[in-house]
Amino acid sequence: METKPVITCLKTLLIVYSFVFWITGAILLAVGVWGKLMLGPYISLIADNSTNAPYVLIGTGTVIIVFGLFGCFATCRGSPWMLKLYAMFLSLVFLAELVAGISGFVFRHEIKGTFRRTYTDAVLNYNAKDEASRAVDYLQNSLRCCGVYNYTNWFGSVFYPSNGIPASCCFNSSDCNPDDLRNATVAPSKVYHQTNMPPLFQGCFELVTSFMETNMAIIAGVTFGIAFSQLIGMLLACCLSRIITANQYEM
């Protein structure tokens, strides 16, 4: 009889944890679907080939949702073997997130190098039609930047001789025509450039990488925090399984 309050308390805590874990899976699933539908063309700028990151998020979110429900069911049933299986899954999630977080931190310079290379290729081969070109336009419009390092990167592109600098570089779309963008003397006064913009609004590469560097500690902290939260679920599941088994043996 003395163990029943302990079992009830652990069950309550584990159900609350499983519900939060389920919400995490739903968030990952939503982010994956949103990334696939909205950011599919733009993610290609940070990878040499087409990336499967949205599918990974969708798959991970779906699995977490299923096992989150399984954790709630196992807790309500009070089945020791189900709780042990749930703890085993949480340990696998913990290891996967830990490896992913460490890999992202260790290889952040390689990620920056890949982004520099793919974005430079996208600028040089820009044609305003394919996915990579649309991604470049989106990036320049949303971040208010021009070129890899500055507007002069566009002078070497295949698009510049006949069309000039893309209109997505213009800071005032109503005062930006193709003739001005083809003129190397006039164009600097029409596009995002250090002569008319603060240093913050320079090349897109500098903006993206500075954001990564500035927020690396926050990203790493959140990643490792989520990873180590799995240890709480593992501990609760193992303790509940052991106490239930011991209580059944005593009875």
Automatic annotation (TrEMBL):
Entry's Gene Ontology cellular component terms: plasma membrane
Keyword tags: Glycoprotein, Membrane, Transmembrane, Transmembrane helix
Membrane topology, from the record: Multi-pass membrane protein
UniProt keyword Glycoprotein, yes or no: yes
Subcellular location: Membrane
Main location: membrane
Coiled coil: none
Transmembrane segments annotated in the record for this chain: 12-35, 55-73, 85-107, 217-244
Alphabetical list of InterPro entries matching this protein: Tetraspanin/Peripherin, Tetraspanin_animals, Tetraspanin_CS, Tetraspanin_EC2_sf, TSN6/7_LEL
Keyword Membrane tagged: yes
Function: May be involved in cell proliferation and cell motility.
Family: Belongs to the tetraspanin (TM4SF) family.
PANTHER family tied to this protein: TETRASPANIN, TETRASPANIN-7
Protein name: Tetraspanin
